């Protein structure tokens, strides 16, 4: 510090914080410094990330409401009201029933035409048949509706699983590589372990070789592919959060074949997983 205006490194650190060049935090373990990147591209990227985060929250709320509606429909098993066919009955079997077959005449003329005594009504027979058919149709429709709601839930969950790709992929306990020179040449291309994830896009990492702790943005990190047979974590995509074992690597397609090693899908082989979707477990 002899060639500067600051007597100590602490004074220099405080000045960086006052001037807004860095975020400075004093902790029991010492000073933590995070460089504030004011590059227009970085600011634009951060604004886009905020928009995407808000959109993801809105999508999650809509998905939750949609699932609740499907579950409610499945439980209630409501069906559309069907027309009810009633039986044609006569209180007095000896009473004569008259039909007016003359079009355009008033209803008062219904008593004038010739009347005839009916035996068993054809409509009565049709009504009884309809009632039997409705009995079977009602139960079939109910089962179909329940099945349809369950199918919709299953299809929705499958689509949701396929669309689990997110803009953020940081997970604790994985090995990553620093790909920025802004923190110094000694950290460039070095490996570290993520100890903590803050607000989805920021990680507290510990360098493997030096043990230094740094606070970095997701854009300054990349995943690390382990050797075949080693354990890894799926950090993005349909199997996000699942632990697996690396089976093989396809260098031409920049993809890998993995074997799920946790959960109900344990032992399942997944092909064509992209490099950026998996990372070595510490």
Automatic annotation (TrEMBL):
Its main location: nucleus. Residues 1-72 form the DNA/RNA-binding protein Kin17 WH-like domain. Residues 130-143 have a biased composition (Basic and acidic residues). It comes from the Eukaryota. GO terms for cellular component: nucleus. Belongs to the KIN17 family. This is DNA/RNA-binding protein Kin17 WH-like domain-containing protein. It comes from Scyliorhinus torazame.
